[in-house]
Amino acid sequence: MCWEKIEVEALVMILKVVVVVVVVEVVVVLIIIAAAEVTTAFVFLIVVVVQIVENKLHVVLVVLMLVVTVVG
């Protein structure tokens, strides 16, 4: 019983992290679409979707790097 509760809590935490990551990605994509050319934003969108499928943590790093690049 105790282990099942821990597993459920872990799943809830993972889901929360995934939701936050997806929201951040969407916001960044919208900012880039607003700030950059449509072609660039479209390419970035494809890259993000591919990265989401491949690896969640990698997406966070890519988004952070792109945010730093855009801001800097």
From TrEMBL:
Transmembrane segments: 12-36, 42-71
Keyword entries, A-Z: Membrane, Transmembrane, Transmembrane helix
Name of the featured protein: ABC transmembrane type-1 domain-containing protein
